[in-house]
Amino acid sequence: MNIDTFNTDREAVAEIGKRVRNLRLNDTARQMSQNELAKRAGISRSTVARFEQKGEISLLPLIAILRAMKLLSNLNRLVPEDVVISPIAISKMQKEKAIQRIRINSIEFPKIPTFDFPKMPVIKIPKIKDFNDKS
Predict the structure, then answer these.
(1) Would you say the C-alpha torsion 92, 93, 97, 98 has a positive or negative sign?
(2) For the whole model, what pTM was predicted?
(3) pLDDT (tens digit, 9 = 90+) per residue, 47-66?
(4) Which of the given ranges, 1-5, 7-11, 78-82, has the highest pLDDT on average?
(5) How far is the C-alpha of 72 from the C-alpha of 78, rounded, in Å?
(6) Which residues of 36-59 are buried (b: 16+ CB within 10 A; e: fewer)?
(7) How far is CA 27 from CA 15, 39, 49, 51, in A?
(8) Is 3-73 assigned to CATH 1.10.260.40?
């Protein structure tokens, strides 16, 4: 089954995990246990198991697995290095990404309404006579 026929990315990644598992178990040149693969790749066995069962893996452990199984060169077809972008295409991309600088003082901010609170009357509190004071 072609990976590009899957509806979701999760399905595609799970299929990749199953394919790596099938290669690990069935290809006589690569036949090894999960423990052996994990040891050769320098990762945990649980990472290998999670990848093979659910397709859950980060890029670095995936590269380590592919290297340990001598499959890393297959990435050359996935990401070819001889793709050249023309200078005109680069120029167009740079123009599209260019962000016009905006000066903060050239932006008109809306006026925030203010509210003046009425002044509160000052209340004078009479001094309480101190009974101990003899004056």
Answers:
(1) negative
(2) 0.59
(3) 999 999 999 999 999 999 99
(4) 7-11
(5) 11
(6) ebbeebebeeebbeebbeebebee
(7) 17, 19, 18, 18
(8) yes
Domain limits, the chain: 3-73
Q: Cβ atoms within 10 A of the Cβ of 11, count?
A: 13
Contact 34, 52 (CB under 8 A): yes
Amino acid letter, 70: K
Token digits for 73?
């060169």
Give residue for tokens 């077809």: 77
What is the DSSP annotation of the chain? --GGG-SSHHHHHHHHHHHHHHHHHH-TTT---HHHHHHHHTS-HHHHHHHHHH----HHHHHHHHHHTT-GGGHHHHS-TT----HHHHHHHHHHH------GGGS-PPPPP--PPPPPPPPPPPPPPPTT---
- CA-to-CA distance for 72 and 87, rounded, in angstroms? 31
